[in-house]
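Dear support,

Our group has been running a series of protein-ligand predictions, and this particular one with flavin-adenine dinucleotide is the one our PI (initials K.S.) wants archived with full inputs and outputs. We had some confusion internally about which version of the output was final, so please treat the block below as the authoritative record. The input we submitted was:
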Amino acid sequence: MLTPTHVNSYYADSANDKSMRPKLNGEQRFDVCVIGAGFTGISTALSLVEKGKKVVVLEEKKIGFGASGRNGGQIVNSFNRDIDYITNSYGQDIGEKMAAMAFSGQALIRHRVAKYNIECDLKSGNVFAACNPRQFEALKAKKALWEANGHDELTLLTASTIQDHIGTERYAGGLLDPRGGHIQPLNLVLGEARAFESLGGVIYEDSKVIRIEKGKPAKIITAEGAIVADTVVVAGNAYMFGLIPDVEKKAMPCGTQIIATEPLPESLQKQLLPTDHCVEDGNYMLDYYRLSGDGRLIYGGGTTYGAREPAKIESVIGPKMLKTYPMLKDVKIDFAWQGNFLLTMMRMPQVGKIGDNLYYSQGYSGHGVTNAHLMGEILADAIEGDSSRFDVFASMPQYPFPGGRLLRVPYTVLGSLYYRFRDTFGV
Ligand SMILES: Cc1cc2nc3c(=O)[nH]c(=O)nc-3n(C[C@H](O)[C@H](O)[C@H](O)COP(=O)(O)OP(=O)(O)OC[C@H]3O[C@@H](n4cnc5c(N)ncnc54)[C@H](O)[C@@H]3O)c2cc1C
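Confirmed final output from the archive:
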């Protein structure tokens, strides 16, 4: 079973658009230069051209090369830390303002998919699955919390009713959110990039930014060209190395791995995920999985602090998948890949401005499908003069991990042991 035929992403293989954009050559002038063509960068760029701005995106590799083109494709609401934690940590006012944005990212994705006719296998519904009674109690609390903040479509699932959605006896219960869902993430960002271009936006690929000369206007330099722009947005997330060190050192790149099975017979798909929702469990090192548009099981899990890649991804993720679905023991794994996401100390996005025209947003801590989209809209509003939502994010403190670059990985591994122990023994 565990011999993938491709050690690359299934998404790259099933991309709707495999064409390459040109490389930047020479010097050009734009209103805004966005660095990085993932969800953050493309979402910001699209929101800005919708407002009539002249925008260029510079991408080191290809559109969606980073986490946005490799992720689990799960549309999950709220933030890594939920509204109650935010309120307790940062006060009632910030808590209320964050709560008002907690379900906005998914709405923006659905709006864009419909408006621009983006083919990305969008499906509705995600299930949070509880691996033990403690996690089930936490889901009951989540339901009450989200309902108190205006989400009235949630359904609590018992150990028995969760099996209407997930064909396993593993879980103690769950929570169904029909406002969640899933997508082929690379095709989403590619579709948004096409929409951006259709409105006059310009994308250069294979155009790594090597230096930013701050000022008004700023100059953004690549190996063979430069952009002069009034405003710069840095959206390199976990794939950026040394461009703005003061911001990068505040967060830690982490790896997580995914496998994709061969396309499964329809009867087996119905047995695994009868309602075609996506699933994430409640463990600290969570498993997340769903069916692809062509009926593969896409199963992810594992976190490597510091983004170290395991030698054999399938031997890390395969056993997790078989624990949930032992009936897949003879199924072929077609693809296995890793992507990097950016973890922050407080598990909240780090959003800010350097000087008065260089913006950054990073570190969604695993919740980036919705949050990176939302941040794009928020950054565009801020650049256009409405910084009300930007200021809420920017007001939260951005602490670095203890130990600096050398010791942050071992310290974080140590810190996670307690949670792993609880998950392993279900306490
Ligand atoms: C395997 C995996 C599974 C995940 N699953 C989920 C999930 O199911 N649901 C969820 O909500 N979140 C998930 N996430 C997190 C989510 O994918 C990310 O938070 C989100 O995609 C981040 O988007 P981004 O645009 O900020 O960064 P990225 O998508 O990483 O984009 C950054 C881009 O910047 C470019 N870049 C970097 N430096 C430069 C430079 N100097 N010059 C030019 N370009 C540069 C990179 O090449 C890259 O394309 C997952 C992440 C991974 C890795």
